[in-house]
Design brief:
Length: 368
């Protein structure tokens, strides 16, 4: 019996290069841990446009809806920049997020000790950092109506609307509380209840869900601007942070860059539970298709590999195996293996994408 099903969408640019390393790791789990996944592969982004004239074919969308987890590499590239907006590679990704209704975006910011010097913050502020930002992804100011640029009294007015229903707030709050139960049991909710009605409602609904369903989790509230300050001042005070779409967009980028390179950052986007109890899920590195280094064996595959570790933990309930994979990555970094993006010293020889994969597989072997 396979553990579950995975649809791999490598996409464009470095997407296929980093995904090749993930495939080797999936094979390792099948061979060495007897954890076999039912894996299929399809096209997304520019690669799908080249074949189907659309960045995500309807059949691919249907397959994504049917599997336990989708793993995506990256989409986009300069050759697609002049395409009509409706068929741009990014539209493939947006369609997946929208039709799978992936309302909770999980962005961990974790600092591996070996890379503590890489951060713009002092090593003692950053070493051992492990926080998780849960961003509401399908509502809020990026979607609210009315929106647009209108003519008013002889001048243009730009309008966006922040709008949240109770149900939208409650479901993302539940995602955060569930995560906290699997971590250190602490959630900090961030909004601007001091100046926004949507923030007042956000705070009230998060508190209600907490009181009724998760009294065992420790909940605190913070204004999002103060939260931004605290993230840079002393990030280790946080464990799970839950916030809306706009604030989450900003805060997760700040938190992510505390830890160094874009090539290290995984993400997960989760939706409602399916019939088998697993959430709809899409896992992807935070980085894009990096056309400047594509095809040169320079891409760091760790962000994509850590995204697969998140899939092990959140889709397949294999937390111990996720730990094993994350520890293998940590070991390799401690041993000094570095793709070019992780090198700031002269004279060191960088590892290629495949060599980084080799090293992680060797560390996995050593973990047995
Ligand atoms: P990018 O993330 O692709 O690259 C930014 C910089 O980081 C580049 O210098 C790149 O070489 C480097 N980088 C990124 N990932 C790396 C990795 N794994 N290893 C080593 N270095 C890495 O962002 P960009 O240059 O702004 O965008 C390039 C293309 O990617 C555009 O078409 C953009 O639309 C698309 N994009 C896609 C996604 C996605 O698929 N989720 C996200 C962002 C951008």
């Amino acid at each position: 019996m396979p553990v579950g099903s995975i649809l791999i969408l490598p996409g464009d640019g470095i997407g296929p290069e980093v995904m090749a390393e993930v495939r080797r790791i999936i094979d390792w789990f099948a061979d060495k841990r007897d954890l076999k996944f039912d894996v299929s592969e399809d096209l997304v982004g520019g690669a799908a446009y080249d074949v189907h004239g659309a960045p995500l074919a309807d059949e691919t969308m249907a397959r994504a809806q049917a599997v336990d987890a989708v793993l995506l590499g990256a989409v986009g590239g300069p050759q697609y920049d002049d395409l009509d907006f409706s068929v741009k590679p990014e539209r493939g990704l947006l369609r997946l997020r929208k039709e799978m209704d992936l309302f909770a975006n999980l962005r961990p910011a974790q600092c591996f000790d070996a890379l503590a010097d890489f951060s713009s913050l002092k090593p003692e502020v950053i070493a051992g950092l492990d926080i998780m930002i849960v961003r509401e992804l399908t509502s809020g100011i990026y979607f609210g109506e009315p929106r647009g640029i209108f003519e008013e009294d002889g001048q243009r007015v730009g309008i966006n609307t922040q709008r949240y229903t109770e149900a939208e707030i409650a479901r993302v709050a539940r995602s955060a509380f569930e995560l906290a139960r699997k971590r250190s049991g602490k959630v900090c909710s961030m909004e601007k209840a001091n100046v926004m009605e949507s923030g007042i409602l956000w705070r009230a609904v998060v508190s209600e869900v907490h009181e009724k369903e998760y009294p065992d989790v420790e909940l605190s509230h913070m204004y999002a601007d103060a939260g931004g300050m605290q993230l840079v001042r002393w990030p280790k005070q946080f464990d799970v942070i839950v916030t809306d779409n706009l604030f989450g967009d900003l805060l997760s980028d700040v938190a992510a860059m505390l830890t160094g390179s874009l090539g290290m950052l995984p993400s997960a986007s989760l939706g409602a539970p399916m019939e088998n109890g697993r959430p709809k899920a899409l896992y992807e590195p935070v980085h894009g298709s990096a056309p400047d280094i594509a095809g040169q064996g320079k891409a760091n595959p760790i962000a994509c590999i850590l995204s697969f570790a998140m899939a092990l933990r959140y889709s397949f309930d294999l937390g111990a195996e996720a730990d094993r994979l994350e520890t293998a990555v940590e070991t390799v970094l401690a041993d000094g293996v570095r793709t070019p993006d992780l090198l700031n010293e002269e004279g060191k020889t960088p590892a290629s994408t495949a060599e980084m994969g080799d090293a992680i597989l060797a560390a996995l072997d050593a973990s047995l």
